Amino acid sequence: MNLEYFIAKRLITAKENKSSISAPIIKIAISAIAIGMIMMIVSVATGIGLQQKIREKISAFNGHIIIANYDSNQSETTLVPVSKNQKFYPKFNSVPEVNHIQAVASKAGIIRTADAFEGIVFKGVGADYKWDNISEYLVSGRLPNLVDALNSEVLISQYLANRLKLKVGDRFNTFFMKEGENKLPNVRRFKIVGIFNSGFQEFDATYVLGDIRHMQRINKWKPDQVGGFEVFVNDFDDIKEVGEKVYEHTGSTLDAKTIVEKYSYIFEWLQLFDFNIVVILIIMILVATINMVVALLVLILERTQMIGILKAIGANNWSIRKMFLYNASYLIFRGLLWGNLIGVSILLIQKYFGIIELNPENYYVNEAPVYINVFYILLLNLLTVGVCFLVLLIPSYIITKITPVKAIRFD
Fold it and tell me: Which is nearest to 368 in space by CA: 100, 114, 48, 134?
């Protein structure tokens, strides 16, 4: 039998322990660990969830890597066409990390209705377009049919639809300016077949998705000319290395830029979340550890006479320290149990009901996204337990300074 564990168990279940001086301190220590674990689980899950969601939205509208001609154009409008007759299209076989490539073309325009007008970017896409990334944001209607003959079907954002007072089935005129002065704009009449809402207002307020053949006709391009290519990679974490490989295999006349480079201001902002998460973890573990140290010291002082008796009958210092460490471990695991239960419950409620909403103008999402990963939760638990035990070895050292004679007479 494990004597230290047996005595520690009796101490934990003792009735007089519930009405002792240490009882409220023990409750505070358990609560501190539980609250700390809740904060750590929620902060990690929401921080990583927000990073991933914003990453997904940016890549949904831009791909992971953008291939286009070198030019000084900093807008979303395509000025110089690119031939589709490339070695890397329609399959980028030279870079195995690439899983999809699609041809696109963009042009700025103005939507004019009877009551309002809005500046937009018409993004022309073809039959090879990866609609999987957009379809999850579809709130009404359907996706445009780009496989058959050229038609006027487009996908518009809910933001633009509300501002222009349009709905699925409505038609509207779009004016595209011609290069040069004193030239009448090209006019195209489109039909809304679907409305999406990504929550990323920078894109929702800008993009209208339709057939790339409209852009080719307006720009007087050949059927094999497009504005550029959007490339998707298997693992976003490898985007920098894959981007360099793609750049090497696109030829000297084309440029390849990752969305991390194009939207550097967003990804730099996202990196701040990593720092915030680390700060929260340190603070929460520090608070939980301090409370456990105080609780253990109180337990030791409260059981001074027992320590003296155990030493008098031959128990060594390490054996007695183990008893109190067992006692402390019970408190730690009890706090972790409640912390995990409440923390995971909060994440599940947010994931399926979206109770906490965010301003999309500031956070690029409508509600706080969560990323539930069992490995991360287990890692947080192990980290908390490890740090607490290491720190608790220090106050348990006080036991070695207690002498049997003084301890038995201690009151």
Answer: 48
Q: Radius of gyration (Cα) for the chain, nearest Å?
A: 32
Strands 98-112 and 138-141: unpaired
Give this prediction's pTM: 0.81
For residues 385 and 370, give the distance between their C-alpha atoms in angstroms, rounded to a whole number: 24
Residue 62, C-beta contacts closer than 8 angstroms, at least 6 positions apart: 230, 259, 262, 263
Asked if residue 159 lies in contact with residue 206, where contact means CB atoms within 8 angstroms, the answer is: no
CA quadruple 40, 45, 46, 51: dihedral sign: positive
**What is the distance between the alpha carbons of residues 85 and 348, in angstroms, rounded to a whole number?**
48
| Beta-bridge partners for 189 | 173
Q: Each residue's pLDDT tens digit in the chain (411 positions)? A: 576 767 777 766 665 455 466 678 788 888 889 999 999 999 999 999 999 998 989 998 999 999 988 864 556 677 788 999 998 998 998 999 999 999 999 999 999 988 888 999 999 999 999 998 888 899 999 999 988 888 999 999 999 999 999 999 999 999 998 766 567 788 999 999 999 998 888 889 999 999 999 999 998 899 899 999 999 999 998 999 999 999 998 878 888 999 999 898 889 988 888 888 889 889 888 888 888 888 888 777 777 777 777 777 777 777 778 888 888 888 889 999 999 999 999 999 999 998 988 887 788 888 889 999 999 999 999 999 988 888 888 877 776 666 765 656 655
Can you tell me the distance from the alpha carbon of 18 to that of 158, in angstroms, rounded to the nearest whole number? Answer: 59
Q: For residues 17, 21, 24 and 30, what is the CA-based torsion angle, rounded to 10 degrees?
A: -60
Q: Are 234 and 246 in contact, with CB atoms under 8 Å apart? A: no
Are 239 and 258 in contact, with CB atoms under 8 Å apart?
yes
CA-to-CA distance for 24 and 244, rounded, in angstroms?
A: 60
